[in-house]
Design goal:
Residues 1-24 form the signal peptide. Keywords: Signal. Pfam families: PAR1 (PF06521). It is built from 9 helices and 4 strands. α7 runs antiparallel to α8. The longest helix is centred in the N-terminal third of the chain and has 22 residues, at 2-23. The protein has helices at 2-23, 33-36, 80-86, 105-110, 112-115, 119-131, 136-145, 147-156, 168-173; strands at residues 39-40, 45-53, 59-69, 76-77. It is globular. A hairpin with a 5-residue loop joins β2 (45-53) and β3.
Length: 182
């Protein structure tokens, strides 16, 4: 009887490894540097590209798991089509709102090809914009009607300011973006 139970445990363990291999858990640290940016681990945490100097002092890159959790998109690597449509670069190191300061970024992020089809990238920049006091849907609306005014408001963090603070529990259930409104 003990032998039968031991065989069953071994079979169960082997089966669980097989199923885990089929499901292919996405772990940031296992991703190559050229697939890291705009990926989300199976745990739901964003992957972030970091640079470091190796033992010879040469700059190298590695993929790490950030503490930023994304709802609804675990185990996801952004498509090349979305990377191109949104005007982002897989070579970005870290997560930053600096991209908003380049003239061609906001029009590409707000374009229908990006905003309506690339929820991962839109979610990331929605949250980064909110951190700067800018409400991304309002910025995109202004971008369509008056691109120069949108850039000025972004730089001054005026007009399109995000709503006031929300309790952390409410953020989990709040929609990250509203592509239908554009």
């Amino acid at each position: 009887m003990a032998s039968s139970m031991k065989s069953s445990l071994i079979l169960f363990f082997a089966s669980s490894l097989f199923v885990q291999g089929i499901l292919a858990e996405l772990i940031c640290e296992d991703l190559p540097a050229n697939r890291c940016s705009f990926a989300i681990a199976s745990s739901g945490k964003r992957c972030v590209l970091e640079n470091f100097s190796d033992e010879r002092g040469t700059l190298d890159y590695t993929c790490k798991t950030s503490e930023v959790v994304v709802e609804r998109l675990s185990g996801y690597i952004e498509t090349d089509e979305c990377v191109n449509a949104c005007g982002v670069d897989r070579g970005f190191v870290g997560i930053s709102s600096d991209a908003f300061l380049t003239a061609d970024f906001t029009p590409r992020l707000c374009s229908p090809a990006c905003y309506q089809n690339c929820p991962n990238i839109v979610d990331l920049y929605f949250n980064l914009a909110a951190g700067e006091g800018v409400y991304l849907p309002a910025l995109c609306q202004k971008q369509k009607s008056n691109p120069h005014r949108a850039m000025l408001e972004l730089l001054s963090s005026g007009g399109g300011a995000a709503p006031g603070p929300v309790a952390a529990d409410d953020l989990v259930h709040a929609p990250a973006y509203a592509p239908a409104s554009l």
